[in-house]
Amino acid sequence: AQSVAQPEDQVNVAEGNPLTVKCTYSVSGNPYLFWYVQYPNRGLQFLLKYITGDNLVKGSYGFEAEFNKSQTSFHLKKPSALVSDSALYFCAVRPPGGAGNMLTFGGGTRLMVKP
Amino acid sequence: DSGVTQTPKHLITATGQRVTLRCSPRSGDLSVYWYQQSLDQGLQFLIQYYNGEERAKGNILERFSAQQFPDLHSELNLSSLELGDSALYFCASSVGRSIAQETQYFGPGTRLLVL
Question: Is B26 on the interface with A (CB under 8 A)?
Fold first, then answer.
């Protein structure tokens, strides 16, 4: 069965500094990987996804993620954090094959960006 | 705004009762997904419908059921409610044509509180 781990419950960053939110996965075959962000009292917003091709994926709001197959990781990054980036971030995996398109989510990482 | 709508936003009910959550997908999307977000279980996939038919099932309790109607809106029915069913219930939708690579777009959720 597939699984996703987000090893950090919370990440604290100063505004203007680079940020990284970590994600590792366990799935057979080549996975499809996603990042979503959840602001308070809002639904999940799609940030970016990796399907195939270039290991560096660029997404919304200046975020990017790097797929590393050997380390089974898909870390989310941003060169310069904003206070408005403070939110809950979820990594998700969709394994290849099989019926349906369900996503398996990690436990979430709360990002706090301080001015 | 993802284009996915969910009603009601909030629902307070008592144990043993039955409730219905409603979801309207984005225009043109054929797949609808239901997820449950709770503090102890995190974000969990419940069920997927594609063009009116059940496509995949996750950790959905037998007390829960769902359907997708000809106009593609979906309802999630929760019966014999227990305190532990208190959670945020999300609906998501996707186009449904290229299953594996699709992005799911989430609605704002329905917050259910069972007293």
Answer: no
